[in-house]
Amino acid sequence: MWSNSRSGWGLISILFHWLSALAIIGLFALGWWMTDLGYYDPWYNQGPWVHRSIGMLLLFATLARLVWRFAQPTPKAEGGRLEVIAAHVGHIALYVLVLLVMVSGYLISTADGSGISVFGWFEVPALVYDFPNQASLAGNVHWYSALALMILSAGHALAAFKHHWLDRHSTLVRMLNPAHSRAGDHSATKSSR
User: Fold this and answer.
1) Which residues contact 60 (CB under 8 A, 6 or more apart)?
2) pTM, rounded to two decimals
3) Mean pLDDT score of the chain, rounded to an integer?
4) DSSP string covering 131-144, please?
């Protein structure tokens, strides 16, 4: 139930997926909202602090998710050859964009040499700072990669709905229910006997 199989995703992968999706959407919405805050708004400092804290937790979760992904079997993709290739390329692009957004956010926040306080629990030190125009260059990368991530995420969701409703594949169900994966394992075992 916890680990992946060739027929579906385990609970840990499912939790990584949905918690990351919520964090990404929430961070994008918060980041967009923060751009309109005035200096005297009570969230002027609080909003960025929350944004940075969640962003750093998402960065660590993404790195842990990648380690888990490489240590676990990947469920067999459904669909035609081109769909499988497109899904593979799309997943790689999602991971690259998530890392690009998180790392550029880190570079914005640490441009002055200050570390990032993560909800006051611990501080992530500034390892790279004092480059010319670091904050503004990283800011541009952060904004455009976040936009690209949201567009690609929407395409990812649409593809999942297409697989579910039009193709009648179990792609979406496998990302919602780890028990479905085990049912697939049992039926595959029975059919091989």
Assistant:
1) none
2) 0.89
3) 92
4) -TTHHHHHHHHHHH
